[in-house]
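Data card: per-record layout.
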Amino acid sequence: MENILELVRERRSVRTFDGKDIGGELKEKLVSFMEKIENPYGIPVEFRLLEPEEYKLTSAVITGAPLYIGAKSARTEHMEEAFGFSFEALVLYAQSLGLGTTWLGGTMDRKAFEKAMELNDGEIMPCVSPVGFPAAKMSLRETLMRKGIKADKRLSFGEVFFDGSFDTPLTEDRAGALAEPLEAVRLAPSAVNKQPWRAVVSRNSVHFYEKRSRGYVSDATGDLQKIDVGIAMCHFALTAEELGLSPVLTVGDPGISCEEDTQYVATFSVG
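The structure for this 271-residue chain is written out next.
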């Protein structure tokens, strides 16, 4: 993939598809890519392309999807962050192929999807995504959904990024070489567009945090907002790599004072 920030800016969640098969060549490209996906936690995430008719897969908010992407992982520490990171890498690759996707953690027949993924004890399937060519026009339901969650709106740079502590908003000028990777974070998708990521920049380190809301944790999905932070970290890492910044992940709370609903997740240091 090239120009990650451009892909991030171009992409939107697609819920209305044209119903056409994407063809064998694109399927092969997706399968080849998903077999090589890695995340900085080293936690395996298994992906599969699923045929809706074969497995009777349905979602009340999706129309015309010719395929779904399913994914599962072992229930382990940092699984949510790794899952979000890996799945978003595939989502961006699909975007580079001209294919639409959207994250689904609910509004689907979960039992049918888990059966199709052959979910075993100790495994979890937090989310899936339809994949296909976007329809020429969104359905009325999709239009209303996007309007309801203000899907095209994002918090400002200084509302989600901070300079040294949570007391000082970070400006794009102060961010310097990190401005583009952070902008890719700011534009990331999230459940109901809650944008639960926060980041404190201290010299060459970016400390990621989850700003938690109630109602996003369940046994079936894990912590959806931590998955959202994983998505955001994927945007940061891929953009930083493209710029030659060599991001390295560590997990070690820097002890920065934060609100009770805000929890440290991980740190990326850049060269």
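Known properties of this structure: The CA atoms of residues 6 and 184 lie 9 Å apart. The first strand starts at residue 46 and ends at 50.

See the next section for split statistics.
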